[in-house]
Amino acid sequence: MGKSLEYIVEKFPDHRTTIIHLYNKDGDFRTLYEDYLTSALMLEKYRQYAIKDKRAENVYSELYVELEEEIIHLLSTGEK
To answer: Virtual CA dihedral for 24, 45, 66, 36, nearest 10 degrees?
Structure first.
């Protein structure tokens, strides 16, 4: 498992096998997850360094939630 998958596996440990399977076999899931991870990292950057750009923080926060909801849906319907 690559280091990049640690984030999602820690977030959804019960779906570890499905996550790895989807990441390795489904390009759309891989892209979705990479966007999700990027939004999480950017959101953390804005929060950690107290950057005063609330608009950007809100955009990444909304994107993060939307992507997480899509991942949860895929994990719940893609369970093997």
So the answer is: -10
